[in-house]
């Protein structure tokens, strides 16, 4: 599945045509809120403890909301919440296997998750016929875990709020396809279930996504979420997603 998604990303332009587009007016969903429904390959690992880590892989549905406003001075935003898709995927696992591996405790397994969601909002500061650059802010919640045994864990551990800057870049391709990139760097503020305020250095959380969007509703994407551990514990978890799906007006 992973190799298939990578092949789709590489060959995608050939699947949708090369009719030349001259400006952002040709992008069908410019200025319209859309909902994305996709199928994803999810991988969770901790590269900082390679000899002991238990890497985990899942295939789950995915949902998100996006509004691209590709005009001078306009605001764009995105909202992603992993909870619904991961819960639905785990429910399907329960029906067919009798267990929910995603929510089952396993030592040396990474967990990077959210409950409320991740918001990015940015204003266009540079735009021409094929490139748009926007800057703004990110806010979200993150649950981080890498446990050796119940109540024995590496830090940073627990529930964090993250806030920081975000940049969005859109590049117009032939056929009114858009390569969309957005990346945030958030300061994580501890909220619950860890070592407490100020005891362990708060992490810096990096949240990046890259998508190829088309007028035919089809899109493919890559997400990478990780954090910079500012302490000494061997925990630098990462959440990698490859996905393909459709976007609809919402």
TrEMBL record:
It comes from the Bacteria. Residues 1-19 form the signal peptide. Keywords: Signal. This is Lipid A 3-O-deacylase (PagL).
